[in-house]
Write a structure and sequence with these properties.
The structure is a homodimer of 600-residue chains. Chain A is mostly beta strands and 600 residues long. Chain A has four domains: 208 residues, Pectate Lyase C-like; 100 residues; 82 residues, Beta Barrel (Thrombin, subunit H), CATH 2.40.10; 163 residues. Chain A is 2% helix and 47% strand. In chain A, the strands form five sheets. Chain A has a 23-stranded parallel sheet that branches. In chain A, strands 4, 5, 7, 19, 21, 24, 27, 36, 39, 40, 43, 46, 49 and 52 form a 14-stranded mixed sheet that branches. The longest helix of chain A has 10 residues. Chain A is globular, with a radius of gyration of 25 Å. Chain A starts with 19 loop residues before the first strand and ends in a 5-residue tail after the last strand. The relative contact order of chain A is 0.08. The interface between A and B is medium-sized, with 24 and 24 residues.
Chain lengths: 600, 600
């Protein structure tokens, strides 16, 4: 490695020249070597120059962590830690990274793209991958039903491993022994999680492992039912160390475009965005690389506390170990009311620690933690972070008598609109779409084929603490292709807050105005929509078609309503089912109209 | 908890009034409750007001981590992490914290005092303790020599524990299961590590543990020789989590006085100081609290890369699980010479990661990593931190031909003088004093009674990477009371760099000008001084007196010289030994004079 040319450090002087494209090759950044230090420095050098394009001529560029900039970062839904960075964009304005179809190959626990407090940044036309995956793929070659043991074949080049004390460990970049925690069986016929994955769940804590010939390992005492021969057991590390490295992390930013970017792996999500206004994803792909079943260790994309518009068009997300997209806010616990309009608050979920919940000027709602229903809206006047868990928040006013029970707060200023058109989310663990936002939501002309629910409109103040009772959602003309093959009551659409036993409905419904219309549902179980605590729900003109991709199952009525109001079920058709496809509703439902439906 | 009085936030307006004492009780800070948030905020409020004393009326003040300010901190010789802080002093000037004899009681992993970039700060007249110790004390009540198992009694209030999977875990503040790593047996007769501690070393990885009656636990398969009945097994956690919380951490500061401060516990050192000019410790104490054998988990005090004068007077450090004081710099590896006077460097020891090695203007030496001898001195012109491990350093000039072998650098500007007078360091694991600095060192009228060497003048570029070949050291009129009861060749004074097999002497000696004179050595083994690669060594007028505190042992000659030059051994007396107390020297020693010695 040679010292960077001095010209780098004089770029600031050029800032008045207007739009400029920099060919990175002119700065010693060329394929075939570790370019991390040079890229870090070039990015830093153009920090104060607006309207720059960094052009990477097509090729494979390597990024190693040894000389990478490192900053301690809290990353929502990931594990907070010192992060080594490939492209650390801090405060940049009008910057484009143009990959020209290049492959950016990362090594070890690096965060390829960090966008912090940037404005108008475009990432385009490149692929992100890692030299060593964050998960491992073990081919099941023998099984023994009687003692529930099985033998897997492991490619020692792809997934170098050791056995120690009866446990299986994997070697990663500069990590000698990475243990097994989460795991899931993948089906080579569907390129998806196997039907009824839970049956084959492996208890990694109890597993006993031994050598069983060349590249073969016997696994005992770990499963109730051994996975079928020919399937692949995916293992993906233990909690607090298996979500260290998302591919892209965006915070406190504005007007971000991700165009033609492909993510092939990830020690976390493909894209995680926090407190950012306007994000456009055009033709973004998440998919497993050649020879692999699985892509990212977590969601393809995830948005928390954003505003403006989140727009996804022509994207394809597949092979993830978690959801396709999740858009939500956060419920934060009021630890103590200190008087004089000041609250001591605590962030509720450990993977939200470090989140910027609010800033002065934001509108917030105070709500009961029991009913999750807001009772007061006000504005933040002072905001002081104490530590990753807690902050002090002063608001303009509080009710004369605060309720006695436990309270939470949510940030009303930071809920985005969501537009999803012509996307495909498939062959992944968990859901296609999770959305809880008070903004306008339009989900149309998409293809969904996920293992759990198709679209989950949830909101909960007890597990993930994802806020955002919806107010205006349109889901139309989408295809749901055999979603829910996790088995048992997974719906194309589930709209329902998640309650704990000690929580209860309050006065009024949680979600509002959901329209599910014109969708095509290919299904082995006939399920379409379950709704709970929704006021204003249209389920109209949808078509359910029986499909035999998975064994036909009767998992209950196609449409299930609990504590809903103002529901129209009209013009839906179901065909090809040999079991009854019906509608059920609880006694507390009001104004339910069902008419002109065929086959249900 | 109530909101802080508004007066707090108007303190800045008073900054022109000159010296001011604030009674913290006027700000709601009173004994008997968690005062962390209020103390954090009061400290922040006086940040820009010089010459303030925060006066804590005598009492016990509690500090819990829940509402404590948190910042990610690299702490030399500790484990870097997010630190929760009791007294976060950042940029303060002319500030005194006066405890009036108070007890500051901390809970959990907190760093009581953080002094970052402060100038003229005095900490006085208080005691630091934790509600739950960071180590555990297990009384040995039965032993069985044949199978090397033993039974310990554990006070479940003092050391709450559980047994799980045959392993013993301790519960700490909000930590359910803290495992065992390091351990050591303590002798109730001497209140010190037991004689020949290594015999009883426990392999915590192999140990099998089971219940053996009320509050009793049987430990098997862990030792070659079970510790004697009546001794106490001290266990102190596993690496990377057992050095999270030093009592006081000072960095990048100037003119620090610690006066009458007592430290009773510590999840790390009592005091760790980095890159600070002038530190005075007056009457500082480190000692185990009532009912305990052990105080801090690591050194009482430790100074890395400091300058000016470090002065310790009338201090007493005892019961630590590591050294009394250590003063040194750092050898840092040159990873690559990038040309144009720029070096890519890597911090060598994992517990120095994040160290500020240098800043522009500092004088540095470039040296061979094989001989540890410097060959070029120059000045830093640019310094850029890349990550906790690596930095870029540009210097004013380099030799025309850089040697081919591996290189290191050391910072010559940041070596302090050290003055130690009338201190007592005793009843601790490891050494009393480690010192490697190019400054002037005077160690006189102290009492030392440590388990390993009394004073170790080492320097190594292969294990701890502690730099600072000495140039002027006077050690006089001290008492060494049976130091070295770890057994086997522990000396009142060992002056020698630590070499790896692939390292070698270069041309010239490593240490220079060490005077060891007028000291009294009470000893069971007759050892006094070992010196290697020292030029200019006086061993004069010392008195060795046989003492039967431990079994008399012949561990070799009293004075051992290897590759030394210009040595005067004169006027020393030894009495009471039944074995020969002699002098040995290797053939490569030059100019050795020994005369007028009695009994050796």
């Amino acid at each position: 490695m040679k010292k960077l040319p001095l010209c780098l450090f004089s770029l600031c002087a050029l800032s008045s020249l207007g739009a400029r494209t920099i060919n990175v090759a002119d700065h010693g950044i060329v394929p075939g070597k570790d370019v991390t230090l040079q890229v870090n420095q070039l990015i830093n050098a153009v920090k104060d120059e607006p309207d720059v394009t960094l052009f990477f001529p097509q090729g494979t560029y390597d990024f190693h962590p040894e000389n990478a900039l490192e900053i301690y970062r809290a990353v929502a839904n990931h594990d907070n830690s010192l992060k080594r960075m490939g492209f650390p964009l801090y405060g940049h304005k009008d910057l484009t990274i143009d990959g020209d179809g290049s492959l950016f190959m990362f090594h070890g626990h690096m965060v390829p793209f960090t966008l912090e407090s940037v404005d108008t940044v475009t990432l385009k036309d490149f692929t992100i991958d890692w030299s060593r995956s964050f998960h491992d793929e073990l081919l099941v070659v023998e099984r023994d039903d009687t003692d529930q043991s099985f033998i897997v074949e492991i490619d020692p080049k792809q997934d170098p491993y050791t056995i120690k004390g009866g446990k299986l460990y994997f070697e990663r970049y500069k990590i000698a022994e990475d243990g097994i925690g989460s795991n899931m069986v993948w089906d080579p016929k569907t390129l998806s999680p196997i039907y009824d994955t839970r049956s084959y769940q492996m208890n990694a804590g109890k597993m006993k492992v031994s050598h069983a010939g060349k590249n073969r390992v016997k696994i005992e005492k770990a499963v109730k039912v051994a996975p079928p021969v020919g399937t692949t057991l995916i293992t993906y590390g233990t909690q607090t160390t298996n979500r260290l490295a998302p591919a892209m992390h965006v915070t406190n930013s504005k007007d971000i475009v991700i165009d033609g970017v492909t993510v092939l792996d990830g020690g976390g999500m493909g894209l995680i965005v926090e407190r950012t206004e306007n994000v456009t994803l055009e033709g973004m792909k998440v998919q497993a690389k050649e020879g692999y079943f699985v892509s990212t260790r977590a969601d393809a994309t995830h948005f928390i506390g954003c505003k403006g518009t989140i727009k996804l068009e022509n994207c394809e997300f597949k092979h993830m170990l978690d959801d396709g997209i999740n858009v939500h806010g956060a419920y934060v616990k009021v630890e103590e009311y200190l008087g004089e309009n000041q609250f001591l608050c605590e962030i509720s979920h450990f993977q939200q620690w470090g989140l910027t919940f609010a800033e002065p000027g934001d509108k917030v709602a105070i709500l009961s933690r029991e009913t999750i229903l807001p009772f007061h809206e006000t504005e933040v006047t002072e905001f002081e972070i104490i530590n990753e868990h807690r902050f002090l928040m002063t608001v303009a006013n509080v009710p004369a008598n605060l309720p006695k029970g436990p309270l939470s707060v949510e940030n009303l200023s930071w809920y985005p609109d969501l537009i999803m058109r012509n996307n495909r989310i498939l062959q992944n663990r968990a859901r296609s779409v999770l959305v809880t936002t008070k903004g306008k939501v339009v989900i149309e002309n998409n293809y969904f084929n996920s293992q759990m629910h198709g679209i989950l409109i949830e909101g909960d103040n007890n597990k993930w603490y994802e806020s955002g009772a919806v107010e205006d959602v349109v889901i139309r003309n989408n295809t749901f292709d055999n979603v829910g093959y996790a088995k048992t009551e997974r719906y194309p659409l589930l709209a329902s807050p998640l309650f704990r036993p000690e929580q209860r409905f309050g006065e009024g419904h949680y979600h509002r105005n959901v329209r599910f219309t014109g969708n095509t549902i290919k299904t082995f179980n006939g399920l379409s929509v379950k709704a709970l605590s929704v006021k204003g729900l249209d389920i109209t003109n949808n078509t359910l078609i029986f499909d035999n991709k998975y064994p036909e199952a009767d998992e209950g009525p196609s449409i299930v309503l609990e504590y809903c109001d103002d529901v129209l079920i009209k013009g839906n058709k179901a065909k090809g089912f040999s079991h009854d496809i019906g509608i059920s509703q609880t006694d507390d439902c009001t104004s339910i109209t069902a008419k002109n439906n065929k086959g249900l």
